[in-house]
Amino acid sequence: MPEERKETPEHPGPGAGGPAGARDAGLMSPIRAGTPVEAALTDEAWLSAMLDAEVALACAQARIGMIPWSSADAIAASARGWRCDPVMLARRAREAANPVVALVQELTREVAGRYPDAADDVHLGSTSQDILDTATMLLAAHALDLISDDLDRVCSALEGLAERHRDTPMAARTLTQHAVPTTFGLKAAGWLHAADGARQRLKALRTELPVQLGGAAGTLAAYHEYATLDGVKGRNGESAALELMSVFAEEVGLAEPVLPWHSAREPVARVCCELAVMAGVLGKFGTDVQNLVRTEVAEAVEPGAEGRGASSAMPQKRNPVLSALLVSAALQLPSHATVLLHCMAAEGERSAGAWHAEWQPLREALRIAGGAAYTAAELAEGLVPLSGAMARNLALTQGQIVAERLVVHLRSAVGKAEAKRHLGRIAASSAGGESFACAVRADPVVRESLSPDLLDEILDPAGYQGAAGELVDRALTHHRLHTRSASEAAAERGGTRPEPCERTPQ
Amino acid sequence: MPEERKETPEHPGPGAGGPAGARDAGLMSPIRAGTPVEAALTDEAWLSAMLDAEVALACAQARIGMIPWSSADAIAASARGWRCDPVMLARRAREAANPVVALVQELTREVAGRYPDAADDVHLGSTSQDILDTATMLLAAHALDLISDDLDRVCSALEGLAERHRDTPMAARTLTQHAVPTTFGLKAAGWLHAADGARQRLKALRTELPVQLGGAAGTLAAYHEYATLDGVKGRNGESAALELMSVFAEEVGLAEPVLPWHSAREPVARVCCELAVMAGVLGKFGTDVQNLVRTEVAEAVEPGAEGRGASSAMPQKRNPVLSALLVSAALQLPSHATVLLHCMAAEGERSAGAWHAEWQPLREALRIAGGAAYTAAELAEGLVPLSGAMARNLALTQGQIVAERLVVHLRSAVGKAEAKRHLGRIAASSAGGESFACAVRADPVVRESLSPDLLDEILDPAGYQGAAGELVDRALTHHRLHTRSASEAAAERGGTRPEPCERTPQ
Amino acid sequence: MPEERKETPEHPGPGAGGPAGARDAGLMSPIRAGTPVEAALTDEAWLSAMLDAEVALACAQARIGMIPWSSADAIAASARGWRCDPVMLARRAREAANPVVALVQELTREVAGRYPDAADDVHLGSTSQDILDTATMLLAAHALDLISDDLDRVCSALEGLAERHRDTPMAARTLTQHAVPTTFGLKAAGWLHAADGARQRLKALRTELPVQLGGAAGTLAAYHEYATLDGVKGRNGESAALELMSVFAEEVGLAEPVLPWHSAREPVARVCCELAVMAGVLGKFGTDVQNLVRTEVAEAVEPGAEGRGASSAMPQKRNPVLSALLVSAALQLPSHATVLLHCMAAEGERSAGAWHAEWQPLREALRIAGGAAYTAAELAEGLVPLSGAMARNLALTQGQIVAERLVVHLRSAVGKAEAKRHLGRIAASSAGGESFACAVRADPVVRESLSPDLLDEILDPAGYQGAAGELVDRALTHHRLHTRSASEAAAERGGTRPEPCERTPQ
Amino acid sequence: MPEERKETPEHPGPGAGGPAGARDAGLMSPIRAGTPVEAALTDEAWLSAMLDAEVALACAQARIGMIPWSSADAIAASARGWRCDPVMLARRAREAANPVVALVQELTREVAGRYPDAADDVHLGSTSQDILDTATMLLAAHALDLISDDLDRVCSALEGLAERHRDTPMAARTLTQHAVPTTFGLKAAGWLHAADGARQRLKALRTELPVQLGGAAGTLAAYHEYATLDGVKGRNGESAALELMSVFAEEVGLAEPVLPWHSAREPVARVCCELAVMAGVLGKFGTDVQNLVRTEVAEAVEPGAEGRGASSAMPQKRNPVLSALLVSAALQLPSHATVLLHCMAAEGERSAGAWHAEWQPLREALRIAGGAAYTAAELAEGLVPLSGAMARNLALTQGQIVAERLVVHLRSAVGKAEAKRHLGRIAASSAGGESFACAVRADPVVRESLSPDLLDEILDPAGYQGAAGELVDRALTHHRLHTRSASEAAAERGGTRPEPCERTPQ
User: Fold this and answer.
1) Which of A184, A475, B369, D205 is packed most tightly, with the most Cβ within 10 A?
2) Which helix (H) or strand (E) holds A178?
3) Under an 8 A CB cutoff, do C2 and D63 touch?
């Protein structure tokens, strides 16, 4: 019988107590909570990247002579260390449908307070989209670098697994059923090769991320007008505005586009598609691990850590949390790609909604993908395959797993089709009672064609691996070739990359 | 020529400076920045709702006699005012793939520190999913209430527009071309009727949101075992665990499900689908407004506010930002629904990934939809239709817009098909030079059939509104009927709703 | 060494040989190939439904006196048995972006040839969208009826499974790991309850499918004008065009909408969302079956049929093809819903693209969902659960599966948290060697608290089913209640439904 | 009053009359109805491609000596001209969840009937997925070729438009509002550059499409076993099965993968992503055209053809049907990409559902994308820009469109920020009455800074095109460079591509 309660608990309604600036720090998105990529994509990071874009634009304009260096320096000095509240900006962003309008007002005020002469040179000739798109590409580039680093770890760990288990036999499963034998090395090589592909394409894409510069509607008109008014000439007789595009790209370290891309959004859509492909690759890895650690299969163990995989109810539980997180990422990424693909059908010189719909999905895609790469590295580095359990499961069907091999060897005697039918009948009739292997050994048709010794050899699953080992070697060779050339290319690139914001020679 | 620069600006790399707990406060999602629904769905709100669920569970267990009221009171007192860091929890959530495991540890520690005897009654017999799903439904219910309130405002404002402009003529456009006349009232009535439908369905859905209670794997086993061990009996001879489900639902004010729904995720998927439908309805409203405010059309003006719609480049700009935000929401919502639909194919008694993929998309869906409802209310309440411009545009095709009406009147003379062909020829040949109306008036076939006076009448677009006015009346009547019955129903409900956490009589 | 080849085989390039009217009959979509819903959604079916809509419109117009009955009869007689080539229409549909324009031309020609006086009354006052949307709703209604019938079979079969296996114990799995025991009956009851919900909602939705009638731009203007010109009055003083909407709805057996919905597309989006929810429900069923038939689990067998589940390579294979098809459907449906949700943001009185994007995804959604319901019925009716294997797997963790229950019983002695930690340690240390149950029996802490007899009882997994049986009963009761009320409602409806195309009394 | 009706029309229920093999020939998908890509992707085409794969596999096996050439020739001769009913196969595909099992049975029967000795060499060592995936890649390659050809036409037409209208001034619109002037040439150059990018990437992707060869579970085991049994050795000491992979790739003209990719589905996902990007590019083109042809804008006309764009209701209508179809394609493609991305998380060596879910979405994606490319070519080649209307609209805001330019020129006098505010005020106050240009000319601040002559120059919109012309030149140069290198590369490739099915030298 319930006792009397002493006091009425006052539990506030849901959501109550949320402070004014309360935020999302990953509580409902564990795949990325606390990972480097999360920290790289906060509102503060976006704000900082927008300031970087404004500073780089001023530097580029100073380099080509559109504004004095004193202005560029003043703008850089003002932006440096300046704290602008992202919550305030976020709310003012509702007025202009983007945060740059308010940011430019605040930055101009800051510069005007410290360097009055420079205030008029802030955001000169520019438009919100030049700044926001450039900032977004800077953050995407940074996130892709972090992701690439984690994919390097993933590949390196999987390379080790593939190599060490090149010849470890296990059951291959198709449509959830034991099919024929394979090796754990080939499974790992498959994960490796797919991760390798995703890694290479993300690295290639990263170098193509373009700077944005178009002015109010993609004609560079105000940049051109200011330059013309001040008698600034571009290189080779072209408009100074075109040179500005090139120098701006150098300043921020992004690629120079052929045209402004205010409403030509392939660069954004493509990044998101590649992230979704990568999430799919890691989702396949996670799905496979889940099936290996399943209680009844138990052919691998996820890396352990204190408290890892605990349940709030059951003491014995060691849940496969890393693979679950990878699967959760693969379920989310495709949808973000879909949004970005829809946003490509942008109207006119700047869309009224399609551009604005891009930002949050792209951010989510980058941080979920980043979290997935980080998680996959942890999983690949710590995954423990259990070859004993693999061998035990390989024997589970008592020989049925090599039924295809028996067909090969009976074909010359009874024909392929009849051999397949005959073994199908043996498999069906031996389902409940005696083992398939015994039934095969006792079968008159088989006995007539195959000697007991040969039959023993054929019925050994470990002997039916086909070209698995050679396929592992192919994948390893391919991986090493690409990894080496990437390193070499990076080393070569190292020496020649232009210093950002460098002074033009006098 | 560029001057020399005095000092090297040090602008840090993108993302640098992001503090450890840096977060997402809506900077990249202006549709919801600073809106009530955003504050209702922060990490802190989720944390608070999870505590609400733990407290309500304890109260429910006290009500049926599973634990003493002293424990329930102690847990409630401990949870009240307790500050648990969501960033810390978010990071520990990576270890268990959900935040409840760590939350229960921390809450137990807190209770143990203040009321040692009650610590063992925290989360008694429960599982992470009971707490997290219940918290999620509490937040969804709260968000749906906020959304319903904003949709009430939307409907009320559109009702006024439809009524005031019942007979204001304007051009209907199909496939971007002037088709026949319509009225602004009918357009507003269409927005109203669609918003009304979305509102009603969200309100209905809100009352169906279920509590979650299943225990480790949906059998209520530990609840049942504790109750049995303590000799607690349920009502009518059923297990006390079933009564617990019912009392728990009362405590939190959610519906009692027939079965635990750990891996039967219709409730979550359905909420997200309805939110996407609502976003589509408001996206259609936003799309229409965009086309009315288009420079060349100029038949309406978005509500103005200081700084609203400003450009960072162009002084004359008053961008239609509210409608742009509505369109941006409609582009994002469907994808979140897709994720939730995919997550329905959950494996076994709890999926390893599909459940975990739900939380963030559902949160995004709720806050974007909430932001859209809030924005739509602002737009609907302030939208200014310009009947003069509508009349001017109606005359733009110089009569072609009533060509269909001419067919009706020429049919008896020349047959419908020939009338249509004949007028098509007149329209085609008058494209460049004289007006269609003049050409029609001069046409021998027309002159033979229709008197000049009748022709004048026919050619007046304002006279060809069909049943537009009556359709507006239908929509208004339908709206008022539903609004009244909802109010009445709410009033009746008011008196009978059980007080949450009420004491069982002694 | 390869021999010489006698002649060069000429295999034509891919796709060669495709005849002019070559088509898609389901070869790449086995989920629906040859099912009733496929036949109900062919191009011919759409063509036939469009003719039905034209005939019903003429009948409705005759009923209210807008056209003579002789015309309606002539149009009906011409449409009946008339063969119009859908391939030709499909190609001409590219000219108008919809097939109705060409269809009306052809039908008018057909009528003119047989009943010259009636030709002018074909499609009178109408617009393409009135016909196409009405046809689509007719087909959707028919498809939903077929789907409902198959869901009836699904529910009926699952009801039997739940009832027969109410108390059959098996392991519950969470995150792929054995959690606590459950029953196969509860699993089946979960499938039943979800299928039941989907079935009820689709049936409800089917009765709400609206007819479309709006005229050129949703004002009913030409209908109104023709009626006015002929002095036809509507009921109760309203426009005859409004009465036409009502009578047309009766004629085709669809609901009468409050407003024309040319660019208010909730009806279409909602159908697709519900189909996706249903596919998710059946996808969960399929996913669960896959995990039961997995070689290592083997707790169920899919219904067998000659050749069912065969592999082209392996003789022993019996692939779980029905569940694989269900999973394939659940992967496809959400995306079609996404398209329909995106199409809601339609511009003006008829969109230029969004309407046109709806048709094929809706068709795909209906036929895949229909195929899934058909397949699920086959699977549910033939699924063979294997209770022996379930019992064997329940013992696999040698007692760990009831570790939670041990916590319940040790709590009073050592506290809940310590009991959980202690059992966690035993589970971890017994992983490799002796069984968990032996370790528990030998543990001093346990021995001190629990007698050997009680321990035996606790360690029996079959004894720890919580309220599973009662939950099964709840689901069965709920199902039967809803099924009965639906039958009763149908019986009552039976007598009152208006005969379509009935003659108005003279 | 309605007359009496003579007879009851019997219109059959919807869907009635659908013959047994009734199909989908594009009636509900006008974007692709009757286009070459549709004919290339029929069920018959898939069937034919699967036979091509079987024949090529036999040829490859003959080339390396695994089977006699007589068998390969017999299989090729049997497949050639053989008619297998796709409807029958589609239905039998439900039994195996794929059509290959039944196809192999039928083909084997066909071969056995004509060349008994060769029957055992049909599908030797192979698995369904080797055949179906290879066939799918063959069809994808063929479809990509057709698409590339149409994109060539698109680019060529847009090149002409960009060149001819390099300096044709028009209003740029951002967020639906006039922003600053641009040129039609730059708009066309933007379409060109995006189409160019899509084209290049699809061409690159086409060369990477891999053949599939893995055997039952990706180890090539049966191929290896047959070769070993017959003493066939591979090149360089590797397994003959690896050589088979290489020779098979040559035979069908697809790329040789590093590993079998039965459950590593990037190739498929990537194709679909690129198709979606292409559809987005063309959707942007379509969206822009829609806005140019809008009644109030009227700056362009879609290519006319007899009956093109007709309405079933309104005689005057010339609907922009080509752009509407492009928009409808862009709305559908992203969702198909989503499905393919979800399918990447495939389990084990062959998934039970994810593979099966790929086929129909990929087919839909290919044929909708192909229809879009075809339609875009028609639109680009026939689009008529109207420079007179562009000039007229440019003047619509009476000077506001160059307000940004006025800021540039007033900056030195009053400061940039003040100039922007000042012009904003003038724009706001001149909204209703006198023109902005007049107000500017009369404004004392302006008059003080700018001479009347300079003001005239500044206020001429045609003079404020920024670097538009130079940007057009950049895009044209880039396009021509890429087009030339592609042609050259193709020419070089021409001479060296290996003849498919070539005889190995004796």
Assistant:
1) B369
2) strand A177-183
3) yes
Query: CA-CA distance, D304 to C153, in Å (whole number)?
Result: 53
pLDDT at A327 over 60: yes
A449 at the B interface (CB within 8 A)?
no
- Residue of chain A with shortest Cα separation from C397: A295
Contact between D480 and D167 under an 8 Å Cβ cutoff? The reply is no
Chain A touched by D276 (CB under 8 Å): yes
- Contact assignment for B309 to A95 by CB distance below 8 Å: yes
Alpha helices in C209-349 (DSSP H): 221-229, 240-252, 266-293, 321-342
CA distance C260 to C272: 20
Distances in Å between the Cα of A259 and the Cα atoms of A142, A219, D470, D477 are 23, 9, 10, 12
A499 C-beta neighbours (distance < 10 Å), count:
9
In the DSSP assignment, the letter for residue A119 is: G
Q: CB pairs below 8 Å between C and D: how many?
A: 449
Asked if the C-beta of C331 comes within 8 angstroms of chain D's C-beta atoms, the answer is yes
Question: How distant is the alpha carbon of residue C238 from its chain centre?
Answer: 40
Task: Provide DSSP, C375-436.
Answer: HHHHHHHH-EE-HHHHHHHHTTTTTGGGHHHHHHHHHHHH-HHHHHHHHHHHHHHTSSSS-H
Q: Is D393 on the interface with B (CB under 8 A)?
A: yes
pLDDT of residue D187: 98
Residue of chain A whose alpha carbon sits nearest to that of C319: A175
> Which residues from chain A sit within 8 angstroms of residue C407, using beta carbons?
315
Compute the distance between CA of residue D130 and CA of residue D262 in angstroms, rounded to an integer. Answer: 8
In chain B, residues with a C-beta closer than 8 Å to the C-beta of A296 are none
Q: How far is CA B480 from the centre of its chain?
A: 21
Which residues of chain C, if any, have pLDDT below 50?
A: 1-22, 495-506
Catalogue all structural domains in chain A, each as residue range(s) with its CATH number: 130-213+263-302+316-392 (1.20.200.10), 397-463 (1.10.40.30)
DSSP secondary structure letter of residue C464:
-
CA distance B91 to D186: 50
Q: What does DSSP assign to residue A210?
A: B
CA distances from D176 to A430, A495, B323 (A): 73, 47, 11
Across the interface, whether the CB atoms of D174 and A342 are under 8 A apart is answered no
Span B115-158, pLDDT tens digits:
999 999 999 999 999 999 999 999 999 999 999 999 999 999 99
**Is C253 in CB contact (< 8 Å) with chain D?**
no
Q: How far is B406 from chain D (nearest CA, A)?
A: 9
Which uninterrupted H or E stretch holds A499?
Answer: none
The pLDDT tens digits for B434-461 are 799 999 999 999 999 999 999 999 999 9
Nearest residue in chain C measured CA to CA from D129: C312
- Is position D311 annotated as part of the catalytic site? yes
CA distances to A492, C282, C283, D446 from C369, in Å: 56, 9, 11, 68
Secondary-structure percent of chain D, ordered helix, strand, coil, rounded to 5: 65, 5, 35
pTM: 0.94
C389: contact with A, CB 8 A cutoff = no
Q: How far is CA D258 from CA C112, D208, D221, D264, in A?
A: 66, 12, 16, 12
- State how far residue A173 is from chain C, nearest Cα, in angstroms: 9
ipTM comes to 0.93
Please check whether residue D293 touches B, CB under 8 A: yes
Contact D291 A175 (CB under 8 A): no
Kindly state the tokens that stand for B147: 């959304």
The closest CB to that of C216, out of D62, D313, D319, belongs to: D313
Cβ–Cβ < 8 Å for A162, A188: yes
| Helix ranges, A230-352 (H) | 240-252, 266-293, 321-342
Best probe of the B interface among D170, D176, D344, D429, by most B CBs < 10 A, is D176
